Amino acid sequence: MLPLNLAVIPWGILCGSLAIQRDFTVLEALLMPLIVFAGSAQLVATELIANNAPLATILFTTFIISSRHFLYGLAFRDKISKLPTKWRLSLGFLLTDELFALSGDNKAFKGVYRLFYALAAGGSFYLCWLLWNIIGIFAGAYLPDLTTLGLDFAIAVTFIALVIPSVTNFPMLITVLVAGISAVVFKLWQWQLDLVAASLLGMYAGYISYNIQAKFSLAQTAKEK
Amino acid sequence: MTLLTIFLLALITFTTRYLFLHPKIPVRLGPKMIRFLSFSAPAVLTAIWVPIIFVQQGQFIQSWTNPYLVAATVGVITAAKSKSVYLTLFISMAVFIVMRVGL
């Protein structure tokens, strides 16, 4: 969980300093990581609020950016929905891209140790995110413009390090190729639902290729008999 | 006004995360849906990182020696060969920093 916490340092500082530069009060700037607790949604909402965008636009845009979390909730539903309320609420609150990225293992969230591990990992992302934001809030005015330094590469390489080793079979390879290519195309189209649409396409491609592969190997075994 | 907006934003981010974890939501996941969802992690994470590398300032990258592209390629190869998160981060970030600062 450490590399993930370090990878978001630039984003956290950027979010905190941007809020102050866009004339948020310190309380407002603190509430963003404290209760909204999101990366891209926080950045975009800060810009929209600063530009006096209509409330409906701000809320709808945030909903769209945040909608990938529906997939995370669905993916963990079988494991988490049976847990007591306090576990559900806290893991739900902490369900970020980073926690999702760490929980790909089948055994994740199973048993007390795994639950506490998830809580500790998710909690560490929360506390570090808060800390990086606070640094941004108080040091932001003295820092150069962070958006042009290429710091988003840290996020990209972290996800590369997490995803690539999981590509061990044909359906995973198809998933990653389809999701990656369509994400680039949708991004170039400047489509707001780019991330969710590319993810769903990738998942569907993976699912289809799994079924084709399963049918093929079934036919193969039938032939051998 | 900004305070109220921030509270509404918090409500949205929490709802999108928590909704399907709630037991009373009438969604039952069959084996096909579970299979489909098993591809969610690689799909979502790839859909996040690939555009960071290939789309800059709204345009497809113009050069094959772009630091993002070179360092990401090194990262993919290192991750595939070593399967080590730390080694991948270290080597790929080093390449990126050298290309950004050193060249």
Instruction: Tell the overall outline of chain A.
Output: globular
Radius of gyration of chain A, CA atoms, in whole angstroms: 20 Å
Count structural domains of chain A. 2
Strand content of chain A: under 5%
Count of helical stretches of chain A: 12
**Kindly state the mean pLDDT of chain A as a whole number?**
89
Q: How do the SSEs of chain B run, as a string of H and E?
A: HHHEEHH
User: Beta-sheet strand percentage of chain B?
Assistant: under 5%
What is the ordering of alpha helices and beta strands of chain A?
Answer: HHHHHHHHHHHH
**How many strands in all of chain A?**
0
Poorly predicted tracts of residues of chain A: none
State mean pLDDT of chain B (0 to 100 scale).
91
Low-confidence stretches of chain B are none
Number of helices of chain B: 5
Which structural category fits the helices and strands of chain A?
A: mainly alpha
Q: What does the largest sheet of chain B look like?
A: 2 strands, antiparallel
Strand neighbour order, sheet with most strands of chain B: 1-2
Helix-strand makeup class of chain B: mainly alpha
Pfam families (chain B): AzlD
InterPro entries (chain B): Brnchd-chn_aa_trnsp_AzlD
Keywords (chain B): Membrane, Transmembrane, Transmembrane helix
Protein name (chain B): Branched-chain amino acid ABC transporter
What topology emerges from the helices and strands here?
The complex is a heterodimer of chains A (225) and B (103).
Chain A: H1 2-7, H2 9-21, H3 26-36, H4 40-50, H5 55-66, H6 68-80, H7 85-93, H8 97-102, H9 111-139, H10 152-163, H11 170-188, H12 194-224
Chain B: H1 2-18, H2 31-37, H3 40-54, E1 55-56, E2 59-60, H4 67-82, H5 85-102
Organism (chain B): Thalassotalea profundi
Keywords (chain B): Membrane, Transmembrane, Transmembrane helix
Transmembrane segments (chain B): 33-55, 85-102
Q: How does this model look, in words?
A:
The complex is a heterodimer of chains A (225) and B (103). Helices cover 76% and strands 0% of the residues of chain A. Chain A has 225 residues and is an all-alpha fold. Chain A folds into two domains: 2-166, no CATH class; 167-225. In chain A, helix 3 (26-36) runs antiparallel to helix 9 and helix 11 packs antiparallel against helix 12. The longest helix of chain A has 31 residues, at 194-224. The model of chain A has no long low-confidence stretch (mean pLDDT 89). With 103 residues, chain B is mostly helical. Chain B has one domain. Chain B has a two-stranded antiparallel ribbon with strand order 1-2. In chain B, strand 1 and strand 2 form a beta hairpin. In chain B, helix 4 (67-82) runs antiparallel to helix 5. The termini of chain B are far apart. At the A-B interface, helix 3, helix 4, helix 5, helix 6 and helix 7 of A face helix 1, helix 2, helix 3, strand 2 and helix 4 of B.
